Amino acid sequence: MENFRDIEAIHRFVKENKYTMLYFSLNNCGVCEDLLPKIKTLLKLYPQINCGKIEADKYPETKGAFSIFTFPCILFYIDGKELIREARFISINQLEEKLKRYFML
């Protein structure tokens, strides 16, 4: 999982990879900390997904650029197009089902 610090690098990452997941979190967010290992485990099932992590409290401009209003937040892209957006109370099972649908096409 790659850590990002600026908007341009994030946009490049999304554009350059076919399958991209962005994980937005805050430093003092217990839910964010609990969810991260689960996301990493899920990503092992989908090695073709490139994942980036953004600590939004350190880089607040990313919140506005990606319309993030609550944390944690996951954005999933295929070929640069956002297809999944999950925030706050994220169910790993539901997220996995959504990902499965795209990879079964």
From TrEMBL:
InterPro entries attached to this UniProt entry: Thioredoxin-like_sf, Thioredoxin_domain
Gene3D superfamilies in alphabetical order: Glutaredoxin
CDD domains named among the record's database cross-references: TRX_family
Thioredoxin domain: residues covered: 13-87
Top-level taxonomic group: Bacteria
Pfam families for the chain: Thioredoxin
SUPFAM superfamilies according to UniProt: Thioredoxin-like (SSF52833)
Protein's UniProt name: Thioredoxin
